[in-house]
Specification:
This is Purine nucleoside. Keywords: Signal, Transport. Belongs to the NUP family. By secondary structure, the protein is an alpha/beta fold. The chain has a single domain, classed as Nucleoside phosphorylase domain (Rossmann fold, 3-Layer(aba) Sandwich). 32% of the residues lie in helices and 17% in strands. The strands form two sheets. Strands 1, 2, 3, 4, 5, 6, 7, 10, 11, 12, 13, 14 and 15 form a 13-stranded mixed β-sheet that branches. It has a two-stranded antiparallel sheet with strand order 8-9. α4 runs parallel beside α9 and α5 crosses α11. The protein binds 2-acetamido-2-deoxy-beta-D-glucopyranose (NAG) (6 copies).
Length: 379
């Protein structure tokens, strides 16, 4: 038997420990390198927010997202797997609904050693509430700004000062119309407008779904000329999105958050959709960008109109909220019908355009100006 020196023994035990515990810091790098052949480098990552939104992408003719399942620790217990095509060019995560689920799932995904996301395009592909001023049930919208309208002070509307039009007041300010003075950093994200315009071109190539039930419901909005787009057939629209954990309904809150969007984006943002995740997803992506894991200029925010944010003339806010949901089906279908055009457009145009990236002409980043550029909004 050969003689073992104490030092060699210690080193041997250490090396054995490290190699058998790939989750330790030291071994992580090594195992990442050794498994780099199997690291997936998606061209497009579809971000779905809940189960039905995720399912519209399965069993489609264009590609098979169920060819590869990758369990990622930290995802929602309901959606523990990322789904990918066999070649890994297209992947999808389902985050779970609302801001906390979305932020945690995205943060976990961005830290997963199974993926290299440095060149990946992210397509937020979800349904939303929609303003009848700019769209309708089944409309497909692409946002430049996402505004966290729920992150404000609130006084119950029955107790507001006589001169306040709403109970929502930007944090750190003392009136609804004053710019916020207390900024947390997640209030506003601006994405690549040049990329957005390309995505819109791709999506306009889709034949959107519509149904008799959606047509009948949107016809109620025809009595108001302000809601002309609400009464018209669905189309592809460029307009911005509002994030709030609070699923609200009503003309007054819609008006208030329309104002919040304008205020927080220094007059550039155009409010049209409402949802519960986008600022959370974008917050995770921005932090990923700050450590070089992703490029924030490769993010597309697509939302389709599932229900109206406010009632038609003569309807109550409650009846709008509890309405039967005539837009849910077309909204889900159009997530896929428009979204797949965007995915295919990026994958097919990879070598010519998308591999090197679409140069943004606008500021791309957050309200705290964490990324370089010339912001047109923020304090
Ligand atoms: C991936 O998971 C789905 C269910 O989420 C399943 O239908 C499919 O067969 C799985 N694919 C593989 C390759 O195991
Ligand atoms: C990820 O991919 C990029 C581009 O191909 C490459 O430069 C980078 O080294 C990769 N990152 C890791 C951690 O392997
Ligand atoms: C539109 O779709 C057709 C057929 O699917 C395709 O050949 C064409 O390149 C697409 N155009 C755009 C702008 O995506
Ligand atoms: C929309 O989808 C529904 C449900 O799949 C289908 O019955 C209907 O024919 C579709 N309409 C159009 C215009 O594609
Ligand atoms: C929104 O802003 C307009 C214009 O400043 C104002 O007249 C209206 O009262 C505001 N509405 C709400 C609900 O804050
Ligand atoms: C945005 O508006 C606020 C409030 O008027 C102002 O303080 C800030 O300088 C503006 N930001 C930019 C980038 O113009």
């Amino acid at each position: 038997m050969w003689k073992t020196s104490p030092l060699l023994l210690v080193l041997t035990i250490f090396a054995t420990y490290v190699l058998s515990h790939p989750w330790t810091g030291v071994a992580n790098e090594a195992s990442y390198q050794s498994r780099s052949v199997s690291v997936i480098k998606p061209k497009v990552f579809i971000i779905s927010l809940f189960g039905a939104e995720g399912a519209v992408w399965y069993h489609i003719p264009e590609f098979n997202l169920l060819a590869r399942n990758i369990t990622v620790p930290g995802l929602s217990r309901s959606f523990p797997d990322v789904h990918c095509t066999a070649d890994g060019s297209v992947c999808q995560v389902v985050t779970g609904s609302a801001e906390i689920n979305a932020a945690l799932s995205m943060a976990s995904l961005l830290h997963s050693p199974s993926f290299n996301l440095t060149n990946t395009y992210f397509l937020i592909a979800g349904i939303a509430g929609i303003s009848p001023k700019l769209g309708t049930l089944g409309s497909v919208t692409f946002a430049r700004y996402a505004v966290q309208v729920g992150l404000q002070y609130e006084i119950d509307a029955r107790e507001i000062p006589a001169n306040f039009p709403t109970g929502y007041i930007p944090q750190g300010s003392s009136a609804p119309w004053e710019y916020p003075r207390s900024i947390y950093g997640t209030e506003v994200y601006e994405v690549n407008d040049a990329l957005r315009k390309i995505a819109v071109t791709f999506a306009k190539n889709a034949t959107l779904n519509d149904t008799a039930a959606a047509q009948a419901y949107r016809a109620y909005y025809a009595t108001s000329s302000v809601y002309a787009m609400g009464a018209a057939p669905p189309s592809v629209v460029e307009c911005d999105t509002a994030t709030s954990d609070n699923f609200w309904s009503g003309a007054l809150l819609a008006d208030a958050f329309e104002n919040t969007t304008t205020l927080f984006t220094n007059g550039t943002g155009v409010y049209c959709t409402t949802q519960q995740e986008d600022n959370a997803v974008l917050a995770a992506l921005l932090r990923g960008a700050l450590r070089g894991a992703v490029q924030f200029s490769r993010v597309i925010v697509m939302r389709t109109g599932s229900d109206f944010d406010r009632p038609y003339d003569g309807q109550s806010a409650a009846d709008n909220l509890f309405a039967a949901g005539a837009g849910f089906g077309p909204a889900l279908k159009n997530v896929y019908l428009a979204g797949v055009k965007v995915v295919q457009g990026i994958v097919e145009g990879w070598d010519g355009t998308f591999k090197q990236g679409v140069q943004p002409t606008n500021y791309v980043g957050d309200i705290s100006w964490s990324l370089p550029g010339n912001p047109d909004f923020g304090p």
